[in-house]
Design goal:
Radius of gyration: 19 Å
CATH superfamily: Glucose-6-phosphate isomerase like protein, domain 1
CATH topology: Rossmann fold
Structural class: alpha/beta
Largest sheet: 5 strands, parallel
Distance between the termini: 58 Å
CATH architecture: 3-Layer(aba) Sandwich
Number of helices: 10
Length: about 260
Amino acid sequence: MSAATDYYDQTQQLLARMRATQLPAVERAAEVCATSIARGGLVFMFGAGHSRMMCEEMAPRQGCFVGFYAWAEQAVSQHCATIGMNGLRGPLFLEKIEGYAEQLLSGFKFGPHDAFIVISTSGIRPLIVEMALGAKARGLPVIGVVSVAHCSQSKPAHSSGKKLIDVADVVLDNHCPPGDCVVEVPGLEWRTGPTSTVTGAMLTNMLRCETAERLLQKGHKPVMLPSHQFVGTTTAHAAEEQLEAYYEGYRRSVAHLYQ
């Protein structure tokens, strides 16, 4: 078996396990999101480091809709340079500082119907734990997207002794193993093949689709972001009009943050 097929097979097994175990949690999380959006609230999605990708997978993304707010804090997620300016050392350091999350949260005016999703495969760093605690202190329901196996086996890094799985009202398990990577290549002492991007994106899109269905059941038709890559004059024109409707709907949805 090649390393490529090994990664594919192991990731498929994780997806199958997630399919078999996570539907009830996805449904509970979707009800939280749909209730929030139907009442005019926002569902914030926060993830540091690589986890920010799940925020951007939700919004703005073709097939998404007004109501989800992707919070990608650049100080803890913009580190593609690895070293030097915008390198990796700074964000990894900031994630360990207690009190930093409260400063970030204080920059927003949350509404009575808002909700919060915190994404972290490990679920233990102070920034992540305090974002969840801060959201709960403001009366927001909290959904955690985490590797339960990794989080459960790790020592708490926050002085409260709490982890994301201790704080979240609903936990979505991405089923990644401790350390995330699954492939062992002879000659390498560290594994490769991280899985949290695949399983996390699957959970994100399952949640999106289930939320859309529940919004319609509640009599709330979500304002969709269409694909702007359609070919054909008529379809392209309709997509352009829908894009403008999405912009306006999104503008109205975030208005309470600045009042």
